[in-house]
Amino acid sequence: MDHLFRQRRISVPKRTSELVALVAVSCTLFLFLHTRDLSTKLRRMQGRLNDDITAFNHLTDRIQTDRIEHAFASAQEYKEALEAIRRNTGAERSKPQRTLEAQLEESREEEEQEYTDELLVPEPWELNNTARAGVELLFFNRVPKVGSQTFMELLRRLSIKNQFGFHRDAVQRVETIRLAPPDQEILVNLVSAHEPPASYIKHVCYTNFTRYGYPSPIYVNVVRDPVERVISWYYYVRAPWYYVERKRAFPDLPLPDPAWLKKDFETCVLSGDRECRYLEGETHEGIGDHRRQTLFFCGHEPQCTPFNTAAALQRAKRVVEEQYAVVGVLEDMNSTLQALQAYIPRFFDGALKLYWEELNTFNRINRNAFKPPVSEAVKQIVRANFTREIEFYEFCKQRLHMQLRALRDPTITLPTTTRSQRRRRAHRLVGRK
Fold first, then answer.
1. Which terminus of the chain is less hemmed in, N or C, by CB atoms within 10 Å?
2. Which domains does the chain have, with CATH numbers?
3. Which residues of 35-72 are buried (b: 16+ CB within 10 A; e: fewer)?
């Protein structure tokens, strides 16, 4: 029997044993690595699940509650949905649940903030200088290159629809923006001579009519981003058709230097050309300088002439607040036309509808196809010198939006003076002369 067992015993070489041991170690290492990989994937899946729960929490947190009953319903739905997620996944929330009391407290705070905001919004009559005008005479002392040609054509068409006189100044050889006191009086007499209701349009600084014994007209104007406006003006006075029109009106005018005509805006700025330096406090009179948008609102006084100064800025702001019915913004035509319609309906009723119906026609007015694009880098260089002009532009934008916000209640009727009141006021002013 022992002999039989000895015959069945198999001899295993030493190298084979080493191979088996190596395979065993390899399998163990493979199983270890595979287990670690599975654990990593499991942690990733759990992380994504927690992210989904967090996103769900944020979504429910954003639910706004207007009534207490609605708040309880939202909380209950939130709780049930959260419990369902936990049952199906076993995952814990990664963000603590907000209490219902906290939601209600935030809702109350939002309501109080809205109420506070409403208290800070002026009533429409506080922003309505139309009611303070002494006569139904609209004066558009238009700023150059703010779309004023478009607004002028719009006003001409509205004059037919709304039955008022349309008048504008004649083309001048040299257009003077600032006037001496005797010339201001001549302008006041000329504008006031038109039978109300009427409109008058001219490139000129704000002029105080009451100083010369006449009732104040309804002042309107439009502003534009100051840098974009000065670029537009730069290429406007170099456009071929501009000099053709000027030459046709005044044949003896000399033609400009071709080198000046060919000079582009970017080269002008980067080379430090005097035309494009825009130095604070600099005064440059005449048709060649239209950088001062504030000048048209500040007025004819000497303090209004230096470029980008604090005194001119503050005076221009005060005049806008006290004298202008609406100052529109070229970049926001909808808001501009809505404010004009609401605050000056006698002249601008139907303006928004007419503008959009004839948009293709209005867009072609005074468009300069010879204006090349200007890089943002060069614009930023120019903006550094237009700080107060930009501040005035932003001020006008805020005022326009405040006027529209004040009209949030459609039942409000804007106050207007009666014709008899305006006549009595005009007689009192004339009697003081």
1. N
2. 29-120 (no CATH), 126-431 (3.40.50.300)
3. eeeeeeeeeeeeeebbeebeebbeebeeeebeeeeebe
